[in-house]
Structures are given as structure tokens and as C-alpha cells.
Amino acid sequence: MKNRAQHTRLIKDEAKRLGFLSCGISKAEFLEEEAPRLEKWLNQNMHGQMSYMENHFDKRLDPTLLVPDSKSVISLLLNYFPSDHQKDENAPKISKYAYGQDYHHVIKKKLKELQEFIFEEIGEVHGRAFVDSAPVLDKAWAAKSGLGWIGKNSNLLTQQVGSFYFIAELIIDLELDYDTPVTDHCGTCTACIDACPTQAIVNPYVVDGSKCISYFTIELKEEIPTEYKGQFDNWMFGCDVCQDVCPWNRFSKPHNEPLFNPKPELLEMSKKDWEEITQEVFSKVFQKSAVKRTKFSGLNRNIQFLKD
């Protein structure tokens, strides 16, 4: 029987081999510090119409309710920072995370491989994989696992890496060696707060989700409130402003995951191309993309909202 240190090293080495940027591990236990923060955020309706955020409150804070007998939360980061960007500076913009194939599928496949590796190399270890689609506080677990700190824009930030990465978890019933959190390195910087086009960062470390451009362009199903006309900085799907201005993202390096590479036509499309987009073009450009979530009608609504 290998010991905890050996198991931990095996898992981290395999995560690296699978292409993950980094891997941190924390004890599966109730997130005491997060509980009052989440409750306050929900009570102030900062989740807007994302009613699913109200569901499974206890499970969001206690992984042992999601995975019975769980002992460890393995947090993983996967880089998505692109090497190329949209060519037309006047074209409506898409968040960089959505350039390539839908990350849910890409990461789930890697997590499944990691699970199978653990089963084969360590033994009968049970657990579940999570990618941003279950009641798991990804950023809180990643911070607890020492992979970075939660910045003033409420994103996970990492020295020498920045924040252009996805976060995923494996919650398993195996005890491992646990990492410790890192210190906050935001200092007196307020770049993200100053740059947010809709003033969604209402206080340092607090984002009003119902004012965020990503919320309006992805989550909101009805018409975008007219008072936000002219405030979207030309974003048609998601928004990267608070990440683009973050000094730590000077260190972002392009990913090496082929599935995250965009279709060439996505980068080549002009402002006019986007304004005249058809269902056929949408289906071709965004095949297997996370943008399909907003549907052609949703993206078209966003593009029309950006027009003068």
C-alpha cells in the first residue's frame, strides 16, 4: 500500500501529463468562510435571474454531501489563453474562453482519464468529476488548494500565470496530502474595478452578477435593459475586461490544447459579417462551441444591442 505522499505525487504528475496547468489538493470539508459570503450575495440578488445559484446551498458548501465519504478535493487548472485574436478591432467581441470547443467536454474527458488512472494505479477510489456545471464553488476550492487567490474581480489569480484558465475538480474518497492557500497579491491595485464597463464590481472582491456583461450576453434570456446601451465595450458573448487589465495577466502564455483553437473564420469575421450573421454561419462557426448555449437568436440579440 503506497502512502499518502506517493499517491499525491502520482496524481499531480498524471495531471501534468494530461495537460493541466496545475493541480492542488484540499481536504473535503465544509467551507465555513464562504457560507456567509454566499448567503449575503444571494440575499442581495446579485445572481439576477440565475436562479440555479439558489439551489443546493448546502451542497455548494459541503462536498461530502455531493460525494459521500469524500476525503479530498483535487482542483485543476487548464489554460485557455489564445495565441491569436479577432482581427477586426471594430467587430463585436467574444470572450477568449469560448474561442474553441466547449471546455466542458474537453475537460470532462481529461478528468475521466485522471479518474481511471487513479483507479488503476492506486485502487478502488470513488468520486465524481465537476466542470462548472454542478453546485461546486470552483474558485473557493482552487484557492483553498493553493492554486491562487481570489482577486478583486472575484476571479482566481495566480502569480506568473494570471487568470485565463478553467477550473475543475475531482472529489474523491481518498485521503491525500493537502496544500495550503497562498497570500493575496492584489495589493492596492484597482485596475479591474476602474475598468469594468458596467461597474459590476461593486466592492473589492464583490461582483454583482446581475450587472456583469457576461450575465447579460449569456445568462439573461429576455431583452437587455436599455439603460446599459453603449456600456458593453463591444462584447457580444462574455467579457474579458477585468482580466485583460489585470497586471498578473502580463504573464499569460498561449495554451497548447488544439481543441481550444478557434475556427479561422471566427477570427477573420468583420464587424459587417457579424451584423449580417445567419443561422447557417452561426452553426458552422460555433459547432461544438460553448457559444451555442446562447443560441443564434441570443447572439443576434446581443449583436443588435451593440449597434448604434
Question: What topology emerges from the helices and strands here?
Answer:
Blueprint: H1 4-17, E1 22-27, H2 34-43, H3 57-61, H4 63-66, E2 72-79, E3 93-94, H5 103-121, E4 127-130, H6 138-144, E5 149-150, E6 156-157, E7 165-172, H7 191-195, E8 201-203, E9 206-207, H8 213-219, E10 235-237, H9 241-244, H10 264-268, H11 271-275, H12 279-285, H13 295-306
Parallel strand pairs: 3-10
Antiparallel strand pairs: 1-2, 2-7, 4-7, 5-6, 8-9
Helix pairs in contact: 1-5
Main location: cytoplasm
Enzyme class: oxidoreductase
Catalytic activity: epoxyqueuosine(34) in tRNA + AH2 = queuosine(34) in tRNA + A + H2O
The best one-word shape is globular
Number of H/I helices: 13
Task: Find the count of extended strands (DSSP E, 2+ residues).
Answer: 10
Percent in strands:
5-15%
Order of helices and strands: HEHHHEEHEHEEEHEEHEHHHHH
Termini separation comes to: 67 Å
Q: Measured on Cα atoms, how large is the radius of gyration?
A: 20 Å
Poorly predicted runs: none
Helix content: 25-40%
Largest sheet: 4 strands, antiparallel
Mean pLDDT: 96
Subcellular location: Cytoplasm
Binding site for [4Fe-4S] cluster 1: 186, 189, 192, 246
Active site: 132 (proton donor)
Domain 4Fe-4S ferredoxin-type: 174-205
